[in-house]
Amino acid sequence: MKLFRFGSLRCVVGLCFVLVFALETALLSGCAVFSTSPSTGFSLDEKEKKEAEALSLLSQGLLQLYADEAKKGSNDVNRAVYYLNLFARACDTLPQNRDLLVAFVTSLENTHLYTNGYQAVSRYLTFSPDDEEMQQMASYFAASAGMYPEAISHCKRVIELSPTNRTFTAELVRLQLLSKDDSGALRTIREEWSRYHDEEAQHLPMGKGYALYSELKEPARAIPYLQLAHQYLLSLDPESKLRSSIGILEGKCLAETGRTNEAMRVYLETYRNDPEKLSAIHLASELLPFSDKRFDSLRTKTQRAYVKDEDLLLYISALQRIRFVADEPQTKDGLNHFLESLPLLRRYYTRSSEERKTLPVDFYNWHIATYECLSDLEKEHKSNGLHDLPAYRPQHLEAYSWKETERLVREAIKVYPDEPSFKNYLAYSWALRKENLEEANRLVNQALAVDPKCGAYLDTKGWVLFQSGRPYQALQLLFQAAENTPDDEIFDHIRTVLTALGKKREAEAVTKFLQKRKQQPKE
Prior knowledge:
Layout: H1 9-36, H2 46-70, H3 77-93, H4 98-110, H5 114-125, H6 132-144, H7 148-161, H8 167-178, H9 182-196, H10 199-215, H11 219-236, H12 242-256, H13 260-273, H14 279-285, H15 293-309, H16 313-324, H17 332-354, H18 361-384, H19 389-392, H20 402-415, H21 420-433, H22 437-450, H23 455-467, H24 471-484, H25 488-500, H26 504-519
């Protein structure tokens, strides 16, 4: 947060004018004294000498700054260092002069010299420790320089000077989080709650818990903050819908840190308190293998709830997980569970179409996932004979053919024209089949316009160009895709293009590289 906003050219010129005028007046006065009574002499006490010297240095610095501003486009580093040094000397001469300090630290802030800024402000605070604004500036500079203990100390001083300013309580907690002082942060939150006992105090631990989970990616640290938020919410508003959101987030944190039993307890408690929060059941089911009897119980609850609410999407997603999340996706029970989802997904589409409802993005994504899953199962059946897939084939499996999937993805592009993933999927699917290559090129260009650095989109573009007979252009894009997203499939495409160009040695190098990657343990 920027606590000062200086640097306006008008302010600089005005201040410069005043200072120069003051200097000229002083000089003229001095000349008059010397001319009228040379015997008396002219003397300044020590304080006046320091002020005159500091004003002189500051004037020079401001004049230099004005000259630099007047030269548009000038980025002379030496000049910048020169006038910053003048400012620094002025501040050293008069460390208690607030105006000098403000001008100096504003220049330091603009040039990101946060450590220097902190040193200058902290020196001033030894003379004026009760200057709240400068305490704020010291905290800002220290935090920007990564000096969190110093930033916390100044932030606490601000709170002492202005105890009703709750903004800085939140800032103090933020600084304590950044310094990994969780005990201090939780203590500050508890003190705030005991003082105010209101909604703002309740939101403080919830916001910090969310930040730790989603921004800092530290679910273990987020748990006590979320538990505190839940405790305060129960005290403040037991019927609040926020309880479910906090419970879901706390369950995710517990699950990701290996505390699955506690996560299961939190999910089930969240569902009991808010039966409409069916995602709690879905997440709970993901913690269980198919062999656990509780999985069937949770699945039945989800099914009944969605039949009641006439919305099958989440139930379907819970069933779909068997392919992507379950411990043993190749088991016969797992295959049965997966195939159970197919008629439900189709039923949802039929009912929504009849009621002329706009289908959500998730529907199209799940249909694509289902099609890809069935394709993989067919390949496994043909190559390994793991399952007799036709014996489990539902009567309407043709609804998940490539022809129907292509039609639905085209529909998704019309319904969600700003969603690039559908355009990329269709373009890549066509490139694999060597179909509609011109339209595929147009679609992937639209996807790249949204995200030009996406490795998947660059790979699709390269593959479309290769299939269109433009291997050299394709290779350039594929290398760019591999640089942004080092995926095995992209390297395999590079190897295919190199082989087609007759570059066998380079293709063999890519093969060895892929073999080495596969031997490395996955993190």
